From TrEMBL:
Pathway in which this enzyme or protein is active: Lipid metabolism; butanoate metabolism
Domain 3-hydroxyacyl-CoA dehydrogenase NAD binding residue range list: 5-183
Gene field: mmgB_2
Similarity comment: family membership: Belongs to the 3-hydroxyacyl-CoA dehydrogenase family.
InterPro entries: 3-OHacyl-CoA_DH (IPR022694), 3-OHacyl-CoA_DH_CS (IPR006180), 3-OHacyl-CoA_DH_NAD-bd (IPR006176), 3HC_DH_C (IPR006108), 6-PGluconate_DH-like_C_sf (IPR008927), 6PGD_dom2 (IPR013328), NAD(P)-bd_dom_sf (IPR036291)
A biological-process GO annotation: butyrate metabolic process
UniProt protein name: Putative 3-hydroxybutyryl-CoA dehydrogenase
């Protein structure tokens, strides 16, 4: 299968990054969001990343212009009518994702692959609302997308080998490393990462140490590039909470219960870096 035209749903932190790496690899990209202001925020981030690449000598002005020239704005799901693959990166919510997939299934060409960047939601359950479960797959990028090499590719129950192979080939064209994973809550990355972050929040909640001390222990003692509370702020505390809920419900084990402090921060709108405040305050 020859993938050339890509549509990305959601121009947030992940969707913008995915659109950027696809355009850098020569794919034509439609970047979709619900409002023009959301698209503009996304394309603004991409432009800033590319400008930094030019300043650091990693790209020329011409290359930057060519990448931006391959990304077009979409405010209507109907723009999916002529693409080969759609990568959904809207919010981490099953109802919203199923509603998007239902619409895409009606609009997208018969051959098109419907991929989701979900951090934890079951691919099989998203695929079940479409008439093409064999062409639904998880394509889980890491944050920040332009920097991180890994893409977890998750097979739903019905995903065919041909579709898996097409997505793996595309991932390699993006100069990323694909890793094949089966469809279980949290896949591999978040099944291991999020309980660690949640435990760090518990340590803060129980007064074991300050947030700075918790982060220092994991950075200096375990050689992690950033502490778990800083990382949680980068991921988004709402996304962290959603993933813990999926692990808790999907695996049915109380060891995955989200920390009450995490719930409290999300309820307060302290969502991390994207909202200006999480465990830390951002300018
Ligand atoms: N943040 C991370 O570190 C990370 C890492 C890997 C995967 N993910 C997953 O990627 C997805 C997006 O996360 P994010 O951090 O980019 O969130 P975000 O809040 O930054 O962006 C989500 C974007 O989707 C848009 N959106 C919502 N509903 C939409 C709809 N119906 N149609 C079109 N656009 C819609 C929003 O307007 C917003 O711009 C989630 O499923 C998340 O779990 C996140």
């Amino acid at each position: 299968m020859n993938i050339q035209k890509v549509m990305v749903i959601g121009a947030g932190q992940m969707g913008a990054g995915i659109a950027q790496v696809c355009a850098q690899a020569g794919f034509d990209v439609k970047l979709n969001d619900m409002k023009q202001a959301f698209y503009e925020r996304g394309i603004g981030v991409i432009t800033k990343n590319l400008t930094r690449d030019v300043e650091k000598g990693r790209k020329t002005e011409e290359e930057k212009a060519a990448v931006l020239g391959r990304i077009t704005m979409s405010l209507d799901m109907k723009d999916a009518h002529d693409v080969d693959i759609i990568i959904e990166a809207a919010v981490e919510n099953m109802e919203i994702k199923q509603s998007i997939f239902k619409q895409l299934d009606e609009i997208a060409p018969k051959h098109a692959i419907l991929a989701t960047n979900t951090s934890s939601l079951p691919i099989t359950e998203i695929a079940a609302v479409t008439n093409r479960p064999a062409q639904v797959i998880g394509m889980h990028y890491m944050n920040p997308v332009p920097v991180m090499k890994l893409v977890e590719i998750i097979r739903g129950l019905a995903t065919t080998d041909e579709v898996y192979q097409a997505v793996e080939d595309m991932t390699k064209k993006l100069e990323k490393t694909p890793v094949e994973v089966n469809d279980f809550p949290g896949f591999i990355s978040n099944r291991i990462l999020l309980p660690m972050i949640n435990e760090a929040v518990y340590a803060l909640y129980e007064g074991v140490a300050t947030k700075e001390a918790i982060d220092d222990v994991m950075k200096l003692g375990m050689n992690h590039p950033m502490g778990p509370l800083t990382l949680a702020d980068f991921i988004g505390l709402d996304t962290c909470l959603s993933i813990m809920e999926v692990l808790h419900e999907g695996l049915g084990d109380s060891k995955y219960r989200p920390c009450p402090l995490l719930r409290k921060y999300v309820a307060a709108g302290w969502l991390g870096k994207k909202s200006g405040r999480g465990f830390y305050v951002y300018e």
